[in-house]
Amino acid sequence: MSGVRGPSDYTHEPPRHPCLRINAKEPFNAEPPRDALISSFITPVDLFFKRNHGPIPIVDDIERYRVSIRGLVKNSIHLSMADIKNLPKYSVTATLQCAGNRRTAMSNIRTVRGVGWDVSALGNATWGGAKLSDVLELAGIPKLMGVTSYGGKHVEFVSVDRCKEEEGGPYKASIPLSQAANPAADVLLAYEMNGEVLIRDHGYPLRVIVPGVIGARSVKWLDNINIIAEECQGFFMQKDYKMFPPSVNWDNIIWDTRKPQMDFPVQCAICSLEDVDVVKQGKITISGYAVSGGGRGIERVDISVDGGKIWLEANRYQKPGVPYIPDDITSEKWAWVLFKVDVEVANNSEIIAKAVDMAANVQPENVESIWNLRGILNTSWHRVRVQNASPATPRSNL
User: Fold this and answer.
1) What is the CATH number of the domain that holds 375?
2) In the record, which residues are listed under signal peptide (predicted)?
3) Are strands 222-228 and 154-162 parallel, antiparallel or unpaired?
């Protein structure tokens, strides 16, 4: 691909918001503070988490930019940004979540490998672009196709991004063709985020958005789209982002015994409090987010202020003043739900949040039961501890 290049060092990184919590500098990985994350249903671009595997690519000449579609198709094509923008434009509000979200809590049980994320390695944005199903039609692949006449069953996305895990090669991932060619799956080739042109950190000039799936499959800085017979064989599909049981360690792991992780499980977290916090006596407001993969809405968010003995149901919403109804025309099926409930807490309380999705999937109670050596998919009950402060004591973190 011409027009975009992956630099070999970190001397041309873009500016970032100063409030971001930096979890790794090179490559840059950062998340916003908890309370800032839920300040609005749509996450501002500068507060959206940053997940990178190498230096941020640089666009030298957008007019020369092309994305190629090739492989097990009748005709290979090369599309400019003008070609893609000539297709019908769709807007999809979707939450992207890193598979390592809440990894820090998992590493407190046993050491895991990976960036130490708190609870903010996700964000909710409105993405604008062309549906992948429309783009594939240009290469002769009809909508709802599950396999091409040439044996293609998967769609591989290859980035211009260069990363050490691929021995200096490009980042890549794939999804099934049946998902890519399905208009209802809302897979986008996105060139806008929250109504503005993508910024470099989030994939300028073009990225993939795969709603309801772990963020690792929404490839940024798109270079090639390959129609292939088997799943992508890249590192991040075959040697990472797979869910293993607690009994597996780095001495006995066999990577090909597990499929690459796609949908993310039901998840929620409290964002109005830190894991250990001081609050004023009396009523406080507990708020946070809940989300589930595969377009499954949130049926319920339960809050306990006594360590799980008694539960209260929190109010759920996406748009202020509009009741959230899962799988309703008023709801955004790929987006998170924000929750809020007023409670009165006793001194030295443990506050717990857990969510239930439309399929009655519920978060596991303990992180120990889902511990895995890569620290992914920590969807255990989110727990915080609070201590009452006297009226004269200002609220502060312990």
Assistant:
1) 2.60.40.650
2) none
3) antiparallel
